Amino acid sequence: MRAGSLQPILGFLDHAGVQTGRWLDRARVPQRELAKPAGLISLPSTYRFLELVARHEDMSDLGPQAAARVTSFSLGGYGQTLQLAATVREYLVTGASRVTTMENQGLSIWLASEGTSIRVNQVLAECAGIGGAVADSYVLMVTIGTLQKMLGADWWPDEIGLRRGTDALLGSRAAQFPGRVRYGLPHSYFTLPRETLCLPNAASITRPGQAAGTVGAPPPLFPTSFAGSAERLLEALLGEGITSIDIAAEAAGMSRRQFQRRLAESGTSFSSLLTALRMRHARDWLANSEISVAELAAELAYTDDSNFARAFRRETGLAPAAYRKSLKALH
């Protein structure tokens, strides 16, 4: 994960007077990387750090406490895009479809319809132990807290579900929550009434020259990293049906080994970039077009639709048709 993702939690701990240095060292988190938002920290080290703090600083509810200091809107360009959403539905659908662009290394979010309710589901990769539970509750509560900014502080989900933990994981937030909390589930989630989707985003912003209430993508940015440049290159090649690492390396003016090494130094790999790119396009097309699954598989240069369907289910937990159906149910 990127060091910038840990900064809100470190900021909260500093404010609370916690001496984080020894816990970072014991978890083998490279502190030199923390000064660089794009610096790389392994997920196991991050989870170990959170577990040490939760255990030894008596902060089982670290996730919700830290989440109270940040919203989705503060997460760089991704957050700025979300803040442009005119309605709750647009915020949730945009966030779920674009979360892979954050280099989150394992976070999946998807929406499902359940009668009169909408369920916002989340899975955090390698979410093991107390540290993983803290991270999982933190991500979920950031989304809930952002919705409270949009809908008012009195708004709460109808129900919250967490993969693991007890009421201690939510601390005082558990007492504040008027609905049902469940633990020990296959994935985390919260629910909200379907009619909430059409409510306006009270926290939305407009860019200069943009009419109030309209939404659009932020202006394109030039890549600021090798991984970003490689992603742009792969996107161009994918448009031609090319998914070969050898051709990509040649187009980048490098040998295959040099190309792989530069990607590894950037904290990613060719297969990871290609998969993230394919899944981003797949989510967008499934949400905004009537293209068939077979045609979509061909557009994304899969050998057949079954390979695409397996890859999509592995990333989202849903088959492509089920994902499209869940989005249509939100309209």
Could you walk me through the main structural features you see in this protein, from its secondary elements to its overall organization?
Keywords: DNA-binding, Transcription, Transcription regulation. It holds the Pfam family Arabinose_bd. This is AraC family transcriptional regulator. By secondary structure, this protein is of the alpha+beta class. The chain folds into two domains: 60-198, no CATH class; 226-328, Arc Repressor Mutant, subunit A (Orthogonal Bundle), CATH 1.10.10. The chain is 51% helix and 8% strand. The protein is built from 16 helices and five strands. Helix 9 (172-176) links the parallel strand 3 (159-161) and strand 4 (180-182). Helix 4 packs across helix 8 (129-151) and helix 13 packs across helix 16. The chain is globular.
**Helix/strand/pairing class, anyone?**
alpha+beta
Q: Helix count?
A: 16
User: Which strand order do you get reading across the main beta sheet?
Assistant: 1-2-5-3-4
Strands, count: 5
The termini sit apart by: 34 Å
Helix content: 40-55%
Radius of gyration over alpha carbons? 20 Å
Low-confidence parts = 206-223
Portion in strands: 5-15%
The topology string of helices and strands comes to: HHHHHHHEEHEHEEHHHHHHH
Number of domains: 2
Average per-residue pLDDT, rounded, comes to: 82
Tell me about the biggest sheet?
A: 5 strands, mixed
Shape: globular
